[in-house]
Amino acid sequence: MRTGSWNDQAISTTKQIQAAVHRGDWEGAAELLDYWMEEAKVVYVVYGTWNRGWRSYLEGKGVPSDEIDSEVERLQELLAFPDGQLFESSAHWTQLAAAAGSLTHRMRAMELDSDEALDELEQLRESWRQHHDRGADFQSGLLTFVAHRFGEASIGEAYEHVLSPYLAERYASFDIRLQPYEETLERNIYLAFEAMRGHLVGQERLGDIDIEEDSDKIVLSFDPCGSGNRGQRGDPIEGTGSRSEAPYGFGVTSAEHDWAWNERGVCYYCAHCCYALEYWPTRQWGHPLRVVDSPLHPDETTVANPKKCTWTIYKSIEAIPEEAYQRVGVKKPID
Length: 335
What we know:
Elements: H1 6-9, H2 13-22, H3 26-60, H4 65-78, H5 89-108, H6 114-150, H7 154-170, H8 181-198, E1 210-213, E2 217-222, H9 228-233, H10 271-285, E3 291-293, E4 309-314, H11 322-326
Antiparallel strand pairs: 1-2, 2-4, 3-4
Helix pairs in contact: 2-3, 2-6, 3-5, 3-6, 3-7, 3-8, 4-6, 5-6, 7-10
């Protein structure tokens, strides 16, 4: 874990590594780089779990394997790396992990100077950005395939199939049937920072997070998040457009659904934040884990000043507003 206040946690691990290199703290830089890879690994493993889950869902619905394979191959070609290589997650991750391991070992042995270390760190960050963004877009593509095959409402069913077992394990520590809400708070906030740093949020794509806090809540905002909202805005780094437009055509909600905040214009990928952080936990143990305000496409994503995505974590159940329950189709419990 990274130590420090919430304001410290809002600073990207990338910047923390850079600072350690500048002050000549090679062991500290290496430890932070190990942790940086842990942040990335969590996202990589999650996407791999989901990829297997979408296939399982589609096969369970009777979609032939060769039809699924054809769509996967189409997306791998569509999401090719800038050098033209098809997007294949496992092989690229192995290369990235090897490069990270080499860099940490040479940091610890003090076998490179600061300029070399910072240059290799930047190459590593860019390699992860390319990998990460394609991994997120791949989820959007498969969800759009589900919607085209079985209708938009089936996405909620697909999320239930894929996410429910995963959430039951990952979020078990937040179950207020097992411990009071206040005892889950610090872990909830910490994991929120850790996850979004791994998504390389922010326009510089370093992982920096904006934070506001008052007596009732802490609000994290991302300009943009590195996954769904980045895809909706388009990618200025690679010069590609919104993932809801050609040649991608990844879907957004055209109707209202409890699993997508009952709003239209929610990208199918972004809807997983609703399902995982609000819809599912509210039905499991009676309250949302984090309350998300996801920008809607196109009115809040492709304008001159696109809206930030925000996550609000309330410091008590009492502070969670009634609206947070209504938007996912339930009423706030009355003690």
